[in-house]
Amino acid sequence: AMLRLRLLTWDVKDTLLRLRQPVGQGYAAEARAQGLQVQPEALGRSFREVYGAQSRHFPNYGHGQGLSSRQWWLDVIKQSFRLSGVQDEAALTKLAEKLYRDYCSPHTWEMLPGAAETLSRCRQLGFRMGVVSNFDSRLEAILSQCNLRHHFEFVLTSEAAGFAKPDGRIFEQALRLGGARPEQAAHIGDDYSRDYRAARAVGMHSFLLRPAGQGQGPEVPPEHVLPTLSHLLARIK
């Protein structure tokens, strides 16, 4: 079955790039560099709790509630350390500013297997390409630093769009940016509801990156599953 695709849209985190180390470890290492001892596991748990609460109270980085994404993140980082026992406000401010900057750095991220080659091949085959990511405004810088930005005609973050996946309106904006109808486009991502199902809900094709041995999620037709990114080309050619 020829899909006749013109546009490919891509999730980024855990699809093209992943953190080199878990958040708790990264945060604890930065704290150590500033002379503070915090347990990475405790910090990881605190972060997950704080991030979850902040996302519920201020969805999509506080868009429409008067928060900047920078302030949103500084609050999350400080509160994660507070929950883990760090009380010194001056130290918290310094840690938060440093970590907010560090997450733009290529030292924080690594490419998933097959990412660079697959993106290059897709461009050689003439597909238009864009990013659709529930990310803040740092994403352009991260993609540039990791030498991926040049693959994409546009980078659409949920902060810029004003809507976060699985809201179909972010995909509709991407289709306008990419000049394609839904049936001419496919989205590639690692999250069943935000990527795979949300793109299909607006009439796009989609593929779910699901590495082997990653436990069982919801049923997806095998031809829509990518055990690695390198499997994509056979699915879309």
Automatic annotation (TrEMBL):
CDD domains: HAD_dREG-2_like. It comes from the Eukaryota. It holds the Pfam family Hydrolase. Coiled coil: none annotated. InterPro entries: HAD-like_hydrolase_domain, HAD-like_sf, HAD-SF_hydro_IA, HAD-SF_hydro_IA_REG-2-like, HAD-SF_hydro_IA_REG-2-like_cap, HAD_sf. One of its GO terms (cellular component) is nucleus. Belongs to the HAD-like hydrolase superfamily. This is Haloacid dehalogenase-like hydrolase domain-containing protein 3. It comes from Catharus fuscescens (Veery).
